[in-house]
Amino acid sequence: MGLQLQMLGTGSAFAKNYYNNNALLYDGTFTLLIDCGVTAPHALHRLGMSFNDIDAVLITHIHADHVGGLEELAFKTKFTFKRKMILYITEELAHSLWEHTLKGGLYQEGEISSLDDIFEVRFLQPLNPQSLTELITVELLPTNHIPGKASYSLYINESIFYSSDMTFEPSLLLNLVQERGCRTIFHECQLSGPGEVHTTLQELLTLPEDIQKITYLMHYADDKDDYLHQTGDLTFLEQNLIYEL
Ligand SMILES: Nc1ccn([C@@H]2O[C@@H]3COP(=O)(O)O[C@H]3[C@H]2O)c(=O)n1
Ligand SMILES: [Zn+2]
Ligand SMILES: [Zn+2]
């Protein structure tokens, strides 16, 4: 069996009809959660799952729709399930995640004073493909999102690009497809308005037809259905469906 992808949600940060853009990547025996936003606990619950069904979590960047569910994950894994989940993250993000995001809620004298008290932390180095399991290799690609804020897209198994939140970077996409064998792209997409910190649908529609045909749109707003016939050769990714990769 190959890998499977199931989105817990495909919504933008402020979408209300879709859960946060978080994914489950299955390799048959191992389940990786890619980002864990505010809505992740509820989205998992709706699928009949809990954090105990997940082996590891990987964080692309620090915004609430990508890390806001980690406090619940931490408390549940530590005090209910009494286990440590693997956390894949860069050193830079790990520092910020603890100091600026989680410490306020999780700190407990004698119990929790660092990420290591919650997680089995495994650092990922950008631009260095690393095997997470026998079947999953991930390379973190630094991509631009917010000025001064680290954000990493994923290149999975030298064939699948999974964008973090990012501004449009056509040269990266062309390079991955033409030089590195990329055959599927999962890309965040802002449907209307100027991109600024995201990639717009209008920008993605400038990609060559062959790249559009392998590109799936995610991280979209509640008015997605208004755009069903305006996406050229691009396809909307749907939350909950299981995609064979
Ligand atoms: N300069 C910024 C910064 C943030 N934002 C909005 O805040 C959201 C945070 O999560 P996100 O998914 O990165 O999307 C961001 C923008 O909607 C924005 O619109 N402009
Ligand atoms: Zn986001
Ligand atoms: Zn973001």
From TrEMBL:
Record domain Metallo-beta-lactamase: where: 20-219
GO MF annotation terms: hydrolase activity; metal ion binding
The name this protein carries in UniProt is: MBL fold metallo-hydrolase
Q: Which PANTHER family match?
A: HYDROLASE C777.06C-RELATED, HYDROLASE C777.06C-RELATED-RELATED
From the UniProt record, list the reaction(s) this protein catalyses. 3',5'-cyclic UMP + H2O = UMP + H(+); 3',5'-cyclic CMP + H2O = CMP + H(+)
**UniProt keyword list:** Hydrolase
Q: What is the role of the protein in this entry?
A: Counteracts the endogenous Pycsar antiviral defense system. Phosphodiesterase that enables metal-dependent hydrolysis of host cyclic nucleotide Pycsar defense signals such as cCMP and cUMP.
Q: Would the keyword Hydrolase turn up in this protein's UniProt record?
A: yes
- Species lineage, top-down? Bacteria, Bacillati, Bacillota, Bacilli, Bacillales
What superkingdom does the record give? Bacteria
Question: What InterPro entries does this protein map onto?
Answer: Metallo-B-lactamas, RibonucZ/Hydroxyglut_hydro
